[in-house]
Amino acid sequence: MTRAWPWLRAAVAAALLAAVVRRLGTGPFLDGIRAVDGGALAVAGAVGLVTTVCCAWRWSVVARGLGVPLSLSSAVTAYYRSVFLNLLLPGGVAGDVHRGVRHGREVQDVGRALRAVVWERAAGQFVQAVLTLVVLLALPSPVRFFVPFAAAALVALALAVVLVGRSRLGAVAADVRGGLLRRRALPVIVLASTVVVLGHAATFLVAARTAGVDASVSRLLPLALLAMLGMVLPSIAGWGPREGVTAWIFSAAGLGAVLGAATAVTYGVLVLAASLPGALVLLAEWAPRPARVVLAGRSR
Q: Is residue 139 helix, strand or coil?
């Protein structure tokens, strides 16, 4: 079952993408790609730089708390590479696994380095869920009925994390205390994650405007955050759940599934373009290094 799980996730993502194409046709996909212009790409690249640095900052703080040192410069380089691989390869997590394993080999502790990646990503997604909940409480959305239940679940999860961190049993408790709840770590995690979420939401709003959506920001912001929650699902190089979830959300909000799918495609192109520095990192690592020539002199 473990070996079949990645293939099953890819199959589900492919089926969802096929369902969107069958329902809406290829028009929204072509429209979303054609809509991309230089201004949108420039904004996405600038926002991508900020969010990547913040993600790397969060990762380095969590890693240090778990006892696996990681400089910010190394984290930024590795995170760019990770984001690019996540968007390029099926599943959406290959880049995270790669950076965790590579960092672990550098510090000779692969297990702890992988745990740092898991906790870093989990902390970011928790902050994203909290910010999404706050926005959904403040602004109208198609899922307003479910917001109180989501709020109760998040509060319960936060209490569980705090209780685990205060316990003295097991590696999980030690990880939570050292990597997440440490006095110098928690404010950085919250601040960095907030900037990341706002940056991704801003890129989504740019994508929506580029794709031709003229709804107000107050109407689009809840949809952007809901769509971003859907993007954490397994995908095929980023495709599948992103288009399906966004199409459904836009349809439920009265903006039309076609515009939703086109916005998701435009967003996908923008984030892929913003991740291209990761491709440069890979090329630099794969490029053959010139051989060093050593001249032997006579000893005197």
A: coil
Query: Does residue 298 have a pLDDT over 90?
Result: no
- Between helix 27-35 and helix 257-274 the angle, nearest 10°, is 40
Angle at 117 between CA 4 and CA 154, to 5 degrees: 90
> At residue 239, what are phi and psi to the nearest 5 degrees?
-95, 150
Residues 6+ away with beta carbon under 8 Å from 24: 247, 257, 258, 261
Helices (H) and strands (E) in the chain, counts: 13, 0
Residues 157-195: tens digit of each pLDDT:
888 887 877 776 678 888 888 889 888 899 999 999 999
Of all helices (H) and strands (E), which one includes residue 172? helix 170-175
| Distance in angstroms (rounded) separating the CA atoms of residues 7 and 17 | 15
Q: Strand, coil or helix: what is 140?
A: coil
- For residues 175 and 115, what is the distance between their CA atoms, to the nearest angstrom? 8
Q: For residue 300, what pLDDT band results from cuts at 50, 70 and 90?
A: very low
DSSP-derived letter for residue 144 is: G
* CA nearest to 88, candidates 292, 268, 295, 209: 268
Quote the tokens at residue 49: 């730089």
Domain definitions of the chain by residue range = 9-279
